[in-house]
Amino acid sequence: MIPLVYDQLNHFGKDDEFILALLEKVNVQVVADLGCGTGRLTVHYIERGYDVTGIDPNEEALAYAKKKWRGNEVQWVLGDSSMLKKETYDAVVLTANVSQVFLTEESWEKMLQDAYRGLKKGGHLIFDTRNPEAKVWEQWEQDDTPDFAVHEQTGEPLEIWTTYDGFIDDVYTFYETVKGAQSGEVYVTEQMKLTFRSHETLRQSLHQAGFSSVYSYGDWEFKKATPSSSSFIFHGIK
């Protein structure tokens, strides 16, 4: 993710509404937002009255997060899942498909173990991910137009271009480049890598990590996920 333009390209939507509704449904109070990025959704947890910790390894993203309205009410932590405190949280939440950046099985299993350790008994792990069967990358690769944003400091119009390397050893690689729409100056180019795990693989990994109950919803509705769902939302209970 590129903090300079992330919030301008990712607006509050149905996915955010679903996560907030699910948290309200399970009646939590202490929430860890793992991979919180710029805090785009984190501050909405504060608005709902939760005690919130936002954790992310990207220092620049956290700098943006801290400037947000009511950002001073969040405990921001630079780091990864190892920073989760033992048996502290009612819910650990990963949104915006952050679950897909764990490229190896070792890193994925470690995150699950850290989340399990950090949750109180009966606590909730919630995350979303794209269904590999939907092959969303085929849609991405057909779009050869830029996204647009504005440089917050200078007001200059920006273009965000994406190029794709595709799959190499089950890891999907692409690049985002932000440049001035008028000057052509390149501000940043970032490589992104994602992995796409199957529904069954994810379900089994949650059980193996110790979660006693595992639920999965499809496409941001409180309905059971199906093979045709574009997105899965997993909900594991400790």
Keywords summarizing the entry:
238 residues; four-stranded antiparallel beta sheet; alpha/beta; 2 domains; 7 helices; globular; Rossmann fold
Architecture blueprint of SSEs:
Blueprint: H1 3-9, H2 14-26, E1 30-34, H3 42-47, E2 51-56, H4 59-66, E3 75-78, E4 89-94, H5 105-118, E5 119-130, H6 136-142, E6 147-150, E7 157-168, E8 171-180, E9 186-195, H7 199-208, E10 213-218, E11 231-237
Parallel strand pairs: 1-2, 1-4, 2-3, 4-5
Antiparallel strand pairs: 5-11, 6-7, 7-8, 8-9, 10-11
Fold and architecture overview:
With 238 residues, this protein is α/β, with parallel strands linked by helices. The protein has two domains: 3-132 and 196-237, Vaccinia Virus protein VP39 (Rossmann fold); 134-194. Helices cover 27% and strands 34% of the residues. The protein is built from seven helices and eleven strands. Strands 3-2-1-4-5-11-10 form a seven-stranded mixed beta sheet, with helices on both faces. Strand 1, helix 3 and strand 2 (51-56) form a beta-alpha-beta unit. The mean pLDDT is 97. This is Methyltransferase. One of its GO terms (biological process) is methylation. Pfam families: Methyltransf_25 (PF13649). InterPro entries: Methyltransf_25, SAM-dependent_MTases_sf.
